[in-house]
Amino acid sequence: MTNQTLAQKRAAAVAPAAYSVHPFYPERAQGSYVWDADGKRYLDWSVGIAVMNIGHSHPKVLSAVKEQIDKFQHLCFAVGMNETYIQVAEKLNSIAPGKSPKKTFLVNSGAEAVENAVKIARVVTGRQGIVSFTHAFHGRTHMALSLTAKANPYKAGFAPRAAEIYRAQYPYMYRNPWGAKTEQETAEKALAALKDQVKYTIGESEIAAFILEPMAGEGGFIPAPEAFLRGLRDYATEIGALWIDDEVQAGIGRTGQWWAVDHYGLEPDLITSAKALSSGFPLSAVIGKAEIMDKLEPGMLGSTFGGNPTGCAAALATLKVIEEENLFERAKDIGAVIKDRLGKLQKSYSQIGDVRGMGAMIGIEFIKDANKTPHEDAVDAIVAHARDNGLILLPTGTYSNVIRLLPPINMSTEELEEGLEKLESAIKFALEPAMSLA
Q1: What sign has the CA pseudo-torsion 199, 208, 129, 272?
Q2: Quick one: which H or E segment has residue 341?
Q3: Nearest-angstrom CA–CA distance, 266 and 304
Q4: Range of the domain at 81
Q5: What is the tens place of the pLDDT at every residue in 35-85?
Q6: What is the pTM of this model?
Q7: Bridge partners of 165?
Q8: Radius of gyration over alpha carbons of the chain, in Å?
C-alpha cells in the first residue's frame, strides 16, 4: 500500500487523538535508515523518540528475540518467573548509579515506571507529597500526566488530576526567571526557590519524593546544572524524602554514560528507565536502592506483561551491544561534532537562540527576536524541509520551538555528515529570509 492509501485507512480506523508528526508510513528499517510505504528512504534522527539508540533491526537484538520466541513468548512473572527477568534485573542493578545495592521491578512503559516509583516512594516514606518541575514530562497515565508540566496536548481536559502534586521551577538557564547568567547562578537560584517553596508552602515533612529529569526531554532538551542536582540530592536526604531520577529518555547510553547523572557521580534513590532499554520492545524498569525496594511486601507491585521474556531478551542484547561497541564514547563524539557544527551556524543566524545537550542528545532552540520570543514557525519549517530531503527530525519544548536531535549512537561518520548537511540545509531554508534579529 502507498502512504496515501494508508492515510485514508488510518482516517477511517484510528482515533484522531493518536497524533503523528510525520505523514508517512514506515515499511522497513535498518541501521540508521527507515523506508516508507512509497519506498522513500529517510535518515532517522528521531529513533522512535530515543528508543532505537543502537539503530533499527540490530542483528544481535533480533537474534536474541527470535531465540526467545522459539522457547516461549509469555507466562507472566506473577505466575512463573522467567530467567530473563532476573538477568535484566541483575544487569540494571549492576549499572545503576552509585554504590548502594540495588533491586529492580519491571513493567512496560516509561509512564508505568513513573507510576510505580511514586507508589514506592509513598509507601516507604509514609508521606504523600511529590514535587515535580516545570518543563517536565513523565508520561500520559493519570499520575504521570499530573506530574507532567505542559498543558497542551498532554494534560488539558484530563481532570481531576492526581492529588498532592506540587511543581517547582526547573533550572532552565536560557529562560530562567531570576536573570541568572551562569549555570552555577541558575542552580543556586533554583535550589533556593525550591527550598523556600517546600519549607514554607508545602511542608518538608510532607514530601515523599522529588521527581526530576536530569535532562528535561519534552521540555526542550534542557540539562539541569550539576550544582542543582547535587543540591537536590542533599536536600532530599536532609528532609527524609527520596529522589526519583527519570532517565526514560536520557538513559541507556544516550548522553555518553548509562545515565545522565553518571556524569556527576550522583546516586538517586529510584531510577526509571524505558525507551532505549529494549530497542522497541515494551519494557521499563524501576531500579531502586535495595533498602528501599525491600520495604514493600510481596504482591504490592505487579504487572501482567511487565518483564515479558521477549522484551527482556531484547534488553539484554541491547545493553550488551552498547558495551561491546563502545557506544558511550561514540555518543560523546557524535554530540561533540554536532555541537561544533551548530555553534558555527549559530554565529550566522541569531534566531538560533541556544544549542545545548549532553552526548548525542542535543536541542536547538529557535527564537524570533532579542526578547527570546519562541519561533515555532521556524521549527515547523525545518522539520518539514528535512523530511522532504530525507531526514527525520522531531520538534519539542514547552514552547514548541526546539528541534531535538536523537541520532543513533552507533551511526557512521558518513551518516553523521549526511544528517548534518540536511539539517543545515533545512535551517538555512527556514531562516535565510531573516538572517539576523538586528
Answers
A1: positive
A2: helix 327-346
A3: 33
A4: 61-324
A5: 999 999 999 999 999 999 999 999 999 999 999 999 999 999 999 999 999
A6: 0.95
A7: 130
A8: 21
Closest of 34, 77, 29, 395 to residue 217, by C-alpha: 395
**C-beta separation of 119 from 301 below 8 A:** yes
Q: Which amino acid is at 124?
A: V
**Euclidean distance between CA atoms 405 and 426, whole angstroms:** 14
- Cα(327)–Cα(4) distance, rounded to whole angstroms? 38
Long-range contacts of 77-83 (CB under 8 A, 24+ apart): 77/106, 77/303, 77/306, 77/307, 78/302, 78/303, 78/304, 82/307, 82/309, 82/312
Amino acid at 314: A
pLDDT digits (tens, 9 = 90+) for 184-217: 999 999 999 999 999 999 999 999 999 999 999 9
Q: Are residues 17 and 148 in the same domain?
A: no
Q: Which residues, other chains included, contact 189 with Cβ-Cβ below 8 Å and sequence gap of 6+?
A: 171, 176, 178, 180
Number of other CB atoms surrounding residue 22 within 10 Å: 16
> Cα 263 to chain center, whole Å?
16
Angle between helices 183-197 and 226-239 (to 10 degrees): 20
Query: Which DSSP string do the residues of 52-100 spell out, in sequence order?
Result: -TT-BT-HHHHHHHHHHHHH-S---TTTS--HHHHHHHHHHHHHSSSSS
Looking at the structure, tell me whether residues 128 and 188 fall in a common domain: yes
Contact 278/318 with Cβ under 8 angstroms?
A: yes
Mean pLDDT of 425-436: 82
Q: Which residue has the cell 511543581?
A: 167
Tell me the CATH number at 211: 3.40.640.10
Domain termination residue (choose one: 324, 344, 379) = 324
* Whole-Å CA distances, 187 to 167, 173, 179, 226, 285: 17, 8, 12, 8, 29
Q: Taking the CA of residue 260 as centre, how many other CA atoms within 13 Å lie in the half-sphere pointing to its CB?
A: 28
